[in-house]
């Protein structure tokens, strides 16, 4: 659990998690409280792109962003277009299910993480760092 790692580090950062489903947020809050990590996690119910825009509007910046809010093209693409507004130079972003086989299969037309990342991230701003399991890592230049 990422909040547990933060609680043990010298840097006392906050982990933000965004989900569209209120029940998922409630479960996360419950788990954070039971692990006594509620001070290290901030749960937000809402659309990922809208939340990223809110962070940008507050000039809130991050050193790491994990993207796993959708497998569909449009939601992933729109987040990709906004990420540069909330990440500091040298920051990393990790896209879950990037190399999932369903991205290539027409029978799984809801999957397009690979396509959305390839077309949504500006190559002048982001460098590809590699594939780790099912995820792709990029770094802000």
Task: Summarize the structure in words.
There is one protein chain. The chain is of the alpha/beta class. It has two domains: 1-46, no CATH class; 49-141, Rossmann fold. It is built from five helices and six strands, in the order αβαβαβαβαββ. The strands form two sheets. It has a four-stranded mixed β-sheet, with helices on one face. β1, α2 (22-34) and β2 form a beta-alpha-beta unit. α3 packs parallel to α4 (73-83) and α4 (73-83) packs parallel to α5. The protein is globular and about 45 Å long. It starts with a helix and ends with a strand. The model has no long low-confidence stretch (mean pLDDT 94).
Features:
alpha/beta; Rossmann fold; 5 helices; 6 strands; four-stranded mixed beta sheet; 141 residues
Give start-end ranges of low-pLDDT stretches: none
Strand content: 25-35%
Q: Tell me, briefly, the overall form.
A: globular
* Strand ordering within the main sheet: 3-4-6-5
Question: Which CATH class of the largest domain?
Answer: Alpha Beta
Radius of gyration: 15 Å
Helix run count: 5
**Count of all domains:** 2
- Can you name the CATH architecture of the largest domain? 3-Layer(aba) Sandwich
- End-to-end C-alpha gap: 28 Å
> Into which percent range does the helicity of residues fall?
25-40%
Within the CATH hierarchy, at the fold level, what is the topology of the largest domain?
Rossmann fold
Instruction: Report mean pLDDT, rounded to a whole number.
Output: 94
Question: Quick one: how many beta strands?
Answer: 6
Structural class of the helices, strands and pairings? alpha/beta
Compressed to H and E, one letter per element, the order equals HEHEHEHEHEE
């Amino acid at each position: 659990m990422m909040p547990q790692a933060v609680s043990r580090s010298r840097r006392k950062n906050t982990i933000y998690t965004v989900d569209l489903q209120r029940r998922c947020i409630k479960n996360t809050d419950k788990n954070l409280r039971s692990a006594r990590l509620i001070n290290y996690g901030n749960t937000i119910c809402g659309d990922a792109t809208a939340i990223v825009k809110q962070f940008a509007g507050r000039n809130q910046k991050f050193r790491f962003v994990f993207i796993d809010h959708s497998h569909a093209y449009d939601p992933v693409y729109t987040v990709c277009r906004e990420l540069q507004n909330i990440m500091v130079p040298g920051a990393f972003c990790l896209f879950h299910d990037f190399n999932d086989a369903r991205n290539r299969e027409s029978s799984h037309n809801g999957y397009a993480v690979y396509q959305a990342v390839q077309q949504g991230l500006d190559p002048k701003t982001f460098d590809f760092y590699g594939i780790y399991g099912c995820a792709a890592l990029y770094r802000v230049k």
